[in-house]
Amino acid sequence: MKFKVMGVILAGGMSRRMAGKPKALLPINGKTFVEHLYERLAPQVDSLCISTNQPMTTTFAEDTAQIPDQHFPKQGPMSGILNAALYAQSLGYTHILIAPVDAPYLPTDWREKMEAAALDLSDSVIIPEVTNRLNYLFQWLPVKHTEALAQWLSTGGRAAKSWLAQIDYQTFFYQETAGNHFQNINTPEDYQRLLSEGPS
Length: 200
Fold this sequence. Notes:
It contains six helices and ten strands; from the N terminus they run βββαββαβαβββααβα. The chain is of the alpha/beta class. It is globular.
């Protein structure tokens, strides 16, 4: 089965726990979070877009679309996922591969592992399980789910965990060989730890 996959960087949050500093633009090792994530995700996918409500100036390729939350704004990351999925669907993509911007050390075999799982799990949404923890915003999502996602958001839905409970989703055990590539940086303390320790 041939998948046409668009990568999606989720960068539309308000960063309230980061004292209002946009996480996408936080520096680490000479680059911003979004630049690190772009460099890791872009080679794995057929195209890439950024879900963001604050247009950013980047050094990215010119064809990297920045997608605002036109539908269901201010309903959290699932709104960003819907708008990115609609964009991908309009261009003929079959799936989107999603990663939050506060995970700058995304594994470089992310698509390979998730696509292999998708061959066995049909058209399900797939999320990784890492060290006994589910990572709800790291998703392999067939765009055929956009209608159901829009319907759920229309009822006021917000949390990814709640959305996934409504559909046929599957988990995939991701065996890390070194480092925690799925860590999230949500607070100034998390950020300082990452600066001092790198991926744990």
